[in-house]
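Structure, all two chains, one model.
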Amino acid sequence: MPDATGLELIAQRVRDSVSAEAVTRAAFHREEATLEVAPAAVHDALAYLRDAGEEPWPHLMSLHGCDYLPEEPRLGVHYQLLSMERADRLNVKTRLGVEDPRLRSVVDLYPTADFQEREVYDMFGVIFEGHPDLRRILMPEDYEGFPQRRDFPMGGEPVLFTFNEAEYPRWYD
Amino acid sequence: MTDPLQVPYRERERSVTMEPVDEERLHDELFTINIGPHHPATHGVLRLLTTLEGEIVRDVKPIIGYVHTGIEKSCEDQQYWKAITFVERMDYLVYYFNAMAFCMAVERLLEEEVPPRAQYIRVLHLELNRIASHLFWIATGALDIGAVTMLWWGCRDRDLVLDLFEMSGGQRMHTRYFQVGGVMEDLPPGFEAKTREFVRVMPQRLDQYLSLLDRNEIWLQRTKGTGVVPVERLLELGVTGPLLRAAGHPWDLRKATPYSSYDQFDFDVPVGTVGDNYDRFRVRIEEMRESLRIIEQALDGLPEGPWITRNRKVALPPRHELATSMEALIHHFKLVTEGFRVPPGETYAAVESPRGELGCFVLADGSSKPARVHVRDPSFVNLQALPDMARGGLIADFIASVAMLDPILGGVDR
């Protein structure tokens, strides 16, 4: 992990090269470095970090979403960057409102994001603009709703057994 | 003739028509075939929409989600110590690794130290689990190429490991042996002797596998030179684990960012040269040998001391204290009814599973249940490399590539 000073330097370099508002917060906590980036600047910031001068982060290990309910903005998308040469990790995250969440896809930078962005779309409804094939990946294709959001009820669907089949007539429709 | 890759995905299923084919087009027609979801060679419920030209694979689309059970969602309704049970069932062959990643993340959020003995016991079980997982891989993978004997031999020796798990955790699979802060119980009497016997027997068994497969013409022709993906492309696709190491990149989290006192063990990271299916096979075989070395060292150097943290806010008090200590009774009651609370925060902990980097992201909101558990499963990410492995090869080699990729669909779909 870059230390707290190193993280501030990275944040400053991103601000200098992408835009002054790109980095909203840089937090160093429990030996983990997190760079919070404005949603509009995610693609540019990651493009800069991927091959940034002397300290690049060429690998994206994990891309995942989470729901910060009741905080606002609710949704978060995390990018776990890794440098194998320095055995070092950097977490880049961004926060999005739940109404029409849109981000620019990073599949062109990190092809590994393909399935993972589809999963975030599937579970949280974040639309990744420029993704080559943004469809549901784990849930059925005709599924409605985004099940990993925290206001999505748990166990909302009836489980069918022979004894309660009569209660759900034409369940197969 | 239209380019099959330009046909929208939805229309590809409809591309098979019953029109008679004239003589000229007979041999260049593209054929879309559905392999799976229910097919023994797909190692679970994996559907592969394959476009073929004769016997040459032109394109593959992996379609997943058939065993999606919403484990990540279910974890949000469970206390942290109960969520371990759920997390273990994601990738059902490497339950210790799933539990390890989750426990590491929670321990990091709690800033809880794991006693050295627990760390060693964890390493011991992780490496036994790595061997069990690789044995099941070689058993089913060789079966795909027709080596039926290998299935029985692999499962026979995997049973030896499961017997050990039964001794220490009481269950053969999904043992829930790892707890936040340590492990559930100390190693039982007789465990060490039985493990040493396994370590003594296993190298000969590995030699037997090699003598069965390594000079088998069918096996060699199916694996050598097939499914090659350049290491740069693998890195782009986020592939880790034996697949990356077979291509010659020695990335191993146990060496790069040691956790659970892996830095105190002496072991090598086997790498391949070509990155074909044969290298993947040899790398995994050598990994089993290295795991045996680690197990032996863990038994030799097993430190004395507690096997779980003494912090009563996190770990259950020992049973005998309940009869005499009021405080222990209160802690026991609080832990069993409410569970422990984790201070707000988020973390990502990664371990080297038999398939690559297994990362667990935990978001805590201050209550006794996690607000989000996400597992970055290596099978899920590695599966994206399958089209690259298969394109341009024979369909029979493609089946070998699926086998050597070793996806576990429980982990892919979670």
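The radius of gyration of chain B is 23 Å.
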